[in-house]
Amino acid sequence: MHLAAEGRVVLGDRRPGDPAVPAELRSALSEWAAVAATVGVNGGPVEQNLVRRRGRQLAGRLAEALGRPVDFTDPVTGQTERVSGRATGPLPRVAPEPPAPTPWATGLAVAAFFAVLTAVADIALSRAFIDALGLLWVPANLLVGCGLAPSLWLLRRTPFWRWPALGCAIGLGVAWVCLLAGQLG
């Protein structure tokens, strides 16, 4: 069993006594081939390892369906191994990659930029509301804050986007303080 250049699985030599491959297994093999063709070119080490593991699983299922061992060619490395059947027990866990160091200097600079940008934009929008509609700036600003809150919360753990999210949250807070101080003073 190996992956052809067109992104399809070639089952190799078929023997006269081989039973037909179940349709469900053929479908799983074609899905795996589509993913393996993409990951082999563009994937990282984690994705390549997952494709390799899934390919071995499918080779094991194919070996059980045919009743004999099959040769599995890894689409990433090109190495061939003989697979006798499905492995029993749970799949081995892949060790997670260690986290990259946090780029504090760059991240805080990006956060500061987005804080200033968000504060200036929110104050300008709220000043326009104050001039035109009076105290309607409060619900308008609450609407802006409540609309951004879920997105900012979801982005807090995404490697790059946590910095703009932090900056936007700080910028909204600074804008509220400035607007309230402007109304009181």
Molecular structure report:
The chain crosses the membrane at residues 104-125, 132-155, 161-182. Pfam families: DUF2537. InterPro entries: DUF2537. This is DUF2537 domain-containing protein. Keywords: Membrane, Transmembrane, Transmembrane helix. The protein has 185 residues and is mostly helical. It has two domains: 2-83, no CATH class; 104-184, no CATH class. The protein is built from five helices and four strands, in the order ββααββααα. The chain has helices spanning 23-42, 45-66, 104-133, 137-155, 162-184; strands at 2-3, 9-10, 70-73, 80-83. The strands form two sheets. Strands 1-2 form a two-stranded antiparallel ribbon. A two-stranded antiparallel ribbon has the order 3-4. Strand 3 and strand 4 (80-83) form a beta hairpin. It is elongated and about 90 Å long.
Q: Average pLDDT across residues?
A: 84
Q: Kindly state the number of beta strands.
A: 4
**How many structural domains are formed by the residues?**
2
Q: Topology as H/E string?
A: EEHHEEHHH
Structural class: mainly alpha
Q: For the largest sheet, list the strands in their spatial order.
A: 1-2
Number of helices: 5
End-to-end CA span? 77 Å
The shape is elongated
Helix content: 55-70%
The major beta sheet can be summarized as:
2 strands, antiparallel
Amount of beta strand: 5-15%
Radius of gyration computed on alpha carbons: 28 Å
Could you list the spans in which at least 5 consecutive residues all have pLDDT below 50? Answer: none
Counting copies of identical and different chains, the oligomeric state is single chain
